[in-house]
Amino acid sequence: MNKIISTGHSNIAIVKYWGKHGKQLPMNPSLSMTLQNAKTETIIEWKTNNETKSTLGKFTFENKENKPFQERIAKYIDSIQAYIPALKGLELKISSSNSFPHSTGIASSASAYSALAQGLVHIEKSITGTISGNYKNEKVKTSFLARLGSGSAARSIYKGFSVWGKSDALNESSDTYAIPINNQVNPIFKKLHDAILIVSTDEKKVGSSLGHSLMNNNIYAKQRFSQARKNTVRLINILIQGNMPAFCDLVEEEALALHAMMMTSTPPYLLLAANTIKIINHIQEFRKSTGIPICFTLDAGANVHLLYHENNAAEVKDLIESQLKYFCQNDKWISDKIFF
Ligand code: DP6
């Protein structure tokens, strides 16, 4: 059997993707930063199967068989053969594991599909010596394929900051793949840290797939998509200027707008926990009383991502250890930072 090992990093969105249409196309552009420590390592082994299509043999996650993941990945492999003809006639064996502990509530679809898409593109390259299709470069094809697995994975193909979805601010941006925007970003934002405060490790009451689909009938959807489009342009300017206080305002506006969409869906639902709100209040009070520009963002769950500049690492560690960790499940928090 041939073998390839690939790594996909997780990312945290600042402007959020929430709502999609067609074949994994976003209703608005999103902008995220890729994380250094939260990542997935995927090993793909392959041999010929004497069939006309590709088959998924064994699949393991964290060294254990996992039927729901296996079915989702088998479907995915099936769906992308049109884009990687070299996969036809191969049997794949895939094993995947995360750097972050299982059941921390950290979403892993971005890192998982980023690793998988990279591995599959490598297989194509090693078999045919080239990348098939009309893509600008290898990363664009990888991001395109990662998107088909999970929308947010499209952004994880790049280090630093990236944008997925057509934006007025970026001519080259696209709904079908993400692009990096690091050249324009002020150096102060290349030293961002993310403390992931694990408020709950419970399975989410409403998963992302259902959450996205509930946007179809949300009465505020149109305004939300317009807000996200404007915030993408606004954020790119803030990143260029190096304006940390303005960054904090936008980050929190986006986080709460995402959860406002959940609260106004039909049926409405709430993923914020009491401790999420306590942490948010502490972060905002800390910012007000010290003038240190730290801020929070949220995924589709109860955990809080506390964003801050490397220069404030000592003060933030003290804040977490003396106050915030008591609102976390088993005092658990994970230290991460932007991946460059
Ligand atoms: C709230 O990328 O997990 O994290 O495309 O259905 O796999 P699928 O959804 P997913 O949604 C992520 C939503 C989010 C915001 C974001 O990452 O932009």
Explain what this protein looks like in three dimensions.
Strand 11 (295-298) and strand 12 form a beta hairpin. The strands form three sheets. Strands 1, 4, 5, 6, 7, 8 and 9 form a seven-stranded mixed sheet that branches. This protein has eight helices and 13 strands. Helix 2 (109-128) crosses helix 3 (138-149) and helix 5 (221-241) runs antiparallel to helix 6 (244-263). By secondary structure, it is of the alpha+beta class. The structure holds ligand DP6. Ligand DP6 binds at residues 13, 16-18, 24, 30, 107, 109, 150-152, 208-209, 212, 258, 299-300.
Kindly, what is the distance between the CA atoms of the first and last residues, rounded to a whole number of angstroms? Answer: 33 Å
Count of individual helical segments: 8
Strand content: 15-25%
Instruction: Sketch the major β-sheet.
Output: 7 strands, mixed
**CA radius of gyration:** 20 Å
Order of helices and strands: EEEEEEHEHHEEEHHHHEEHE
Please tally the β strands and state the result: 13
Unreliable sequence segments: none
Mean pLDDT: 96
State the share of residues found in helices, binned by percent. Answer: 25-40%
Structural class: alpha+beta
The global form is: globular
Distinct ligands = ligand DP6
